Each structure stands twice: as structure tokens, then as C-alpha cells.
Amino acid sequence: GKTFGILLKEEVFGPLNASNCGLGPNTLDQSSRPSQPWSHFSGPWGVYNIPILPGDQTNMPSSMAPDVGIHCSMESWKNFLSAHLIRDETYLSKENWDLLQTEQAQLPVGRGRYLSYAPGFII
């Protein structure tokens, strides 16, 4: 079988011309200036962001990669979002676009409040 990363390149990134997307940290080089956003923690009260130096342990666990382990350049991200806006039926059927963009579950966020969730997105 193929890895998740290979399938993403073949089935998502390639067809959507999102060639600058990948899985895992966007760099391991701590000496270079960031060319893409580094991971970060929020400071007290969410007032400021604390950067996390790049490294092979700076991303979320690999079990969470389908949700938070993908990184893309702004150009590739634009292509991905454009595909969702246009809903090109030569790429996905209307039914598949509907599935991706329609609430499939509600995620509890506390105090009786919920976020609407579609596969991979909070809507």
C-alpha cells in the first residue's frame, strides 16, 4: 500500500496544483529565517505567540497528522481553498463536495456550546 503522504500528493496536492504542501515540520533548520510559519504556543491569555524552534519533534503526534500535520505555502493554500469555493466536479462529485462541506458532527467546546464539524474543518 501507499503511505498517507504519497496518497495526499497523488490525490490532493497534485490535482489541486498545491505542490508546496507536505506533512510534518516545514523545516528542520533552526539557523535559517522562517520561509513558512513556525509552530507556536499561545502565551498567557493568548496575548502573544511563543515560537517553537523547528525540529523533528515540534509537530503534533503523527496520529493527528491528518488534521494538523499538513503545511502549505500561501500559493498552495490559495489553490486548495479555491477548489472548495469553485467545487470543481471534474475533481470531486457534488456528493463528495457536499460531504466535505456539510456538518457531520458537533464538537463540544464547553458550557453547553458546540462547534459544527465537517471532515477536516470546523464550519
Gap between N and C termini: 32 Å
Strand content: 15-25%
- Taking strands numbered 1, 2, ... along the chain, how are they ordered across the largest sheet? 5-6-7
Helix run count: 4
Biggest β-sheet, characterized?
3 strands, antiparallel
Structure description:
There is one protein chain. With 123 residues, the chain is an alpha+beta fold. Helices cover 28% and strands 20% of the residues. The chain is built from 4 helices and 7 strands; from the N terminus they run αβββαβααβββ. It has helices spanning 4-13, 65-68, 74-86, 94-101; strands at residues 22-23, 40-42, 49-51, 70-71, 105-110, 113-118, 121-122. The strands form 3 sheets. Strands 5-6-7 form a 3-stranded antiparallel β-sheet. A two-stranded antiparallel ribbon has the order 1-4. It has a two-stranded antiparallel sheet with strand order 2-3. A hairpin with a 2-residue loop joins strand 6 (113-118) and strand 7. The longest helix is centred in the middle third of the chain and has 13 residues, at 74-86. It is globular and about 45 Å long. The model has no long low-confidence stretch (mean pLDDT 81).
Task: Give me a quick take on this structure.
The protein has 123 residues and is of the alpha+beta class.
Tag the structure with descriptive keywords.
globular; 7 strands; alpha+beta; two-stranded antiparallel sheet; three-stranded antiparallel beta sheet; 123 residues; 4 helices
List the helices and strands and how they pair.
Blueprint (H helix, E strand, L loop, with lengths): L3 H10 L8 E2 L16 E3 L6 E3 L13 H4 L1 E2 L2 H13 L7 H8 L3 E6 L2 E6 L2 E2 L1
Antiparallel strand pairs: 1-4, 2-3, 5-6, 6-7
